[in-house]
Amino acid sequence: MYVLIVIKVPKCFIKAVDKVRRSFIWKVRKEVNGGSCLMAWERVHQALEYDGLGVLNLEYMCWALQIRWLWFKKTDSNRPWKGLDIPVHKNSIAFFNIAFATHWSWG
Fold first, then answer.
1. Residue 28 in this model has a pLDDT that exceeds 70
2. Superkingdom of the source (predicted)?
3. How confident is the model at residue 49 (pLDDT cuts 50, 70, 90)?
4. If 0-12 CB within 10 Å is exposed, 13-18 middle and 19+ buried, where does residue 42 land?
5. All residues at 6 or more sequence positions from 8 whose CB lies less than 8 Å from its CB, including other chains
6. Whole-number Å distance between alpha carbons of 17 and 9
């Protein structure tokens, strides 16, 4: 999971991993077709409280980890990896900027 912070994961990689996860969940096989899936993949990502299976969405998880990285970079100068240049997705930057602006306007 933490590798998702340091590399800019291409969508094709996430699709390939999701294909394996989907196959394992529905048939415990290497491949599965759409007729074997018992619910939409988007619903599988939903939390258990919302009738999903709670399987993490890797793309969103990548964004969340990158937002956490941006937070540490901004707030804690003692971290040894602070100077590393990590590629961050534009959505992560946008969410961080919104959250950071909101956080400081409250306080």
1. no
2. Eukaryota
3. very high
4. exposed
5. 87, 88, 89
6. 11
